[in-house]
Amino acid sequence: MPRFAANLTMMYNEHAFLDRFAAAAKDGFEAVEYLFPYDFQASEIGARLDANNLTQALFNAPPGDWASGERGMASLPGREAEFRRGVETALDYARVLGNRKLHVMAGLIGVDQSRPQHRDVYLQNLAYAAQAAQAEDITIVIEPINTRDMPGYFLTRQDDAHAICAEVGAPNLKVQFDCYHCQIVEGDLAMKLKRDMAGIGHIQVAGVPERHEPDTGEVNYPYLLELIDSLGYDGYVGCEYWPRAGTSAGLGWVKPYLNATRASR
Fold first, then answer.
1. CB–CB of 189/220 below 8 Å?
2. Which of 146, 221, 237, 239 could disulfide-link 214, Cβ–Cβ 3.0 to 4.6 Å?
3. What are phi and psi of 9, to 5 degrees?
4. Per-residue pLDDT of the chain (265 residues; tens, 9 = 90+)
5. What positions does the domain Xylose isomerase-like TIM barrel occupy (predicted)?
């Protein structure tokens, strides 16, 4: 049975961020994820996790200056020292929160910039991040992101992501398979899941093309979730979507799974 994590960056925006943990737990979620925790003390977030008996499934390493449009640093030449400091900050948070999966964003590349140079920097930074995380039993994940939503993003394809992981060769470096991004860029989701499951470290879902609840749009999620389960994936499936209206009102698609998980405990 798939296990789900509520993405608190996108879901439960009816509440202040620290209050979203209780709202997710009330609706039956046993795990949460979000983009970044760094606006709050790790102890503040940890207290909300503990109070609501929630597992921290995933968050992102610092991405650079997000407000000004940066979307990660891992592939950016000249930013290696800042990237490494960000990894250390993320690991400090992960220790407090019990987090075991850390997404490292690649960053943007301009049309006039050297892709081979960016790739070399990316490989070196990922090797550093994986080695630093290995002692903490933490998996580093990299995510192909569609360039419709994030123009210029360095990593866009599943095969490229898996090739990069293979080249780095770290056992705790895997791919974050976001069904929404993959459908927009490549499609053929089921075959890619079958092909790549051994190298997938985290999965996320959203309706395509509007990025609302997974019960709308062009992707057959009941089929995909059954497939993911049959392939032996035992991690959380992150619900990274923008609710059409109220978050709780739109959870009809996931309630049977949440109820089944609670009944099996």
1. no
2. 221
3. -75, -40
4. 899 999 999 999 999 999 999 999 999 999 999 999 999 999 999 999 999 999 999 999 999 999 999 999 999 999 999 999 999 999 999 999 999 999 999 999 999 999 999 999 999 999 999 999 999 999 999 999 999 999 999 999 999 999 999 999 999 999 999 999 999 999 999 999 999 999 999 999 999 999 999 999 999 999 999 999 999 999 999 999 999 999 999 999 999 999 877 666 6
5. 21-256
DSSP code of residue 131: H
Report the catalytic residues. Answer: 143, 240
- Kindly give, in sequence order, each residue whose CB lies less than 8 Å from that of residue 82, ignoring residues fewer than 6 positions away: 64, 73
Residue tagged 């606006």 (tokens): 39
Please, which residues have CB within 8 angstroms of residue 220's CB and are 6 or more apart in sequence? Answer: none
